[in-house]
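In the design runs reported in the main text, the only information available to the sequence generator was the tokenized backbone. The following block is the verbatim input for one such run; it is reproduced so that readers can re-run the procedure and compare outputs position by position.
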């Protein structure tokens, strides 16, 4: 095994700034083979990533965490993705139902610390259960989302899952996202048109007023300090030296020490 740090990726990240989402998706497949998957919560950016996979790599697995308390429209969007795009969606679930969790631990999402625990149990832990199956995970984060994501790198090490997170859409502007959606008639979560810029669990997501930040509806009852669930490592406070352990030959391929980078 070899250590891969975020610092090791500086030069590669700089090179990748000029690459298109399609090229970055294809690079990920060429480097990681069957040990790469995408992740989507079936929201707008994730749906557009799914459409890109539908065009170029429909066989790639798409990990979807069903927390057990999602809006029915979210599950319907997932099912449409499978039926209409032929995507290989793998649904992950927490070990307990919400009723079982509440009986054991109480209503966690009514406090800031409880919300973090609830998100960990219902969103992060299901992903960690399958993390050993993958060396890389593709996401749909974009810098134009703002907040911590404004500095999101294309390649980011994720110590929690011991994977490389690849963000092929990171440079897409809101205007480019709009254009892609319209040109390709992408399946979009219906709640986006009903005042929900982002959609999470039905317990902790509300509509957003036009003058509010787009994530104001997430955990509104806990105040503005609680805006991310923690499933995306770049949403958290940055570690000074995050690192992961991967096979040496894979690290060599990632960094281009074995073969030239070609798409």
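Verbatim output:
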């Amino acid at each position: 095994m070899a250590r891969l740090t975020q610092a090791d990726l500086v030069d590669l990240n700089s090179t990748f700034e000029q690459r298109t989402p399609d090229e970055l998706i294809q690079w990920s497949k060429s480097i990681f083979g069957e040990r790469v998957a995408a992740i989507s919560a079936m929201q707008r950016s994730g749906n557009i990533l799914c459409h890109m996979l539908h065009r170029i790599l429909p066989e790639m697995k798409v990990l979807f965490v069903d927390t057990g308390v999602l809006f029915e429209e979210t599950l319907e969007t997932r099912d449409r993705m499978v039926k209409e795009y032929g995507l290989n969606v793998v649904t992950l679930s927490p070990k307990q139902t919400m009723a079982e969790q509440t009986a054991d631990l109480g209503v966690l999402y009514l406090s800031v610390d409880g919300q973090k625990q609830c998100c960990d149990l219902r969103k992060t832990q299901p992903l960690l259960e399958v993390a050993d199956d993958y060396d890389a995970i593709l996401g749909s984060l974009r810098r134009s989302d703002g907040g911590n994501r404004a500095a999101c790198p294309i390649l980011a090490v994720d110590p929690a899952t011991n994977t490389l997170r690849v963000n092929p859409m990171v440079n897409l502007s809101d205007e480019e996202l709009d254009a892609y959606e319209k040109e390709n008639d992408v399946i979009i979560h219906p709640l986006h048109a009903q005042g929900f810029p982002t959609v999470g669990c039905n317990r902790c997501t509300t509509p957003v007023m036009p003058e509010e930040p787009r994530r104001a509806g997430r955990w509104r009852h806990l105040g503005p300090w609680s805006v991310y669930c923690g499933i995306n490592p770049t949403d958290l406070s940055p570690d000074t030296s995050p690192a992961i352990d991967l096979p040496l030959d894979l690290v060599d391929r990632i960094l281009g020490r074995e073969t030239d980078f070609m798409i």
